[in-house]
Amino acid sequence: MKRTKISILIKSDKPRDNVLIKGWIRTRRDSKGFSFIEVNDGSCLKNIQVVADNSLCNYEDIKKLATGSAVAIIGSLVASMGAGQKWEMRAETIEILSLAPDTYPLQKKRHSDEFLRTIAHLRPRTNKYGAVFRIRSELSYAIHKFFRDRGFKYIHSPILTGSDCEGAGELFKVTTLDLMNPPTKDGAVDYSLDFFGKEANLTVSGQLSAEMFALALGDVYTFGPTFRAENSNTRRHVAEFWMVEPEMAFCDLTGNMDLAEEMIKYLVAYLMEECLDDLELFAKFVDKGLMSTLGNVASSDYTRLSYEEAVEILSKSGEKFEFDIDFGKDLQSEHERYLTEHHFKNPVMVYDFPKNIKPFYMRLNDDNKTVAAMDVLVPKIGEIIGGSQREERLDVLETSINEMGLSKENYWWYLDSRRFGTVPHSGFGLGFERLLMLATGTTNIRDVIPFPRTPNSIEF
Fold this sequence. Notes:
460 residues; alpha+beta; 2 domains; eight-stranded mixed beta sheet; 13 helices
């Protein structure tokens, strides 16, 4: 007999006989001659109530079922006599797959996020984290659908790389050398004897690879894990995270911003349509204003202004910021949230940033002091997208690489793309976990990724 998911049963339009479900016990209570069992199989937020009467041959064992126990139940779907639910199951057989002990850590009570991070292998079994990861799954699908519907090709960019896309040096090194006794040459580690014959790292971005394919296939995107060895223990940072990175040939900064706005609106609207039950859990227990925020992000026109204009607004705001703001300094989260939540009260796109705070590959503007970069800022989160028009002029790109102290030899292939058939092109990176934080009202990035990797923490 084929198992039926509870998400299907609770949407049923009529009673059903001979139904098989499998799942985990959330609660069980006994009444005279009956046990009422709440079962969940992870397919949706809602449980289904199963009524087991004392005529079942293993009824005494059924009364031993505790939270976390696993069962397989065959029965009939019937109209429920209880309030708050349309259907319940009348059990005909209950097979006990496993009995959870009294020490099962997820009892029927509220647990703190801090505690649940210590048992990240079990937290998907809670209502909140089950909802988070169902939303994460749906959002992943929506991203692929968004790009496929617009003719983009999906590129699998490498995780191992010999280059630093951001030029910040916050890289995890990958080596097979004996760390207790590495080979040296001229006083430094001799990476020519390493596995790849040179230094290798985990990638911080798939962008450079995506550019190569955009200059052949037109519109492409990558969607995969990226890594940053930034020793930061904030609510917004983890060492391993996922990035969505589209890259478009024959596209300038304006076209880049158009796509970014279209994508964010599409993804948020998709979740509000497809994941409403799970979103409402967060609107009830995590962020009372969540649905209003998401509606604003999905439907409002995004304000566009230059970095210089943004700095002027912040400087004249009268607000007491922790970090000073002046031309040439990067915007901090508090600045970004002020613009979106207080000044404009909608998402904001800031463009034309000073070149000294941006990576080498961004296109230099005619003023020779700013680059064609853009950030998308949203309420509650701040920056959710960073992107730019890429520098397609070979001589300007070589100068930028030199000014940032990078090695042109390491980027010979990247320079070739400008040497052989260069065109204007642009792209951006969307922080997938930050979008999930926006979607759920969650304030800590550790709570929207299955097994967070942070400084001094690589459990599970």
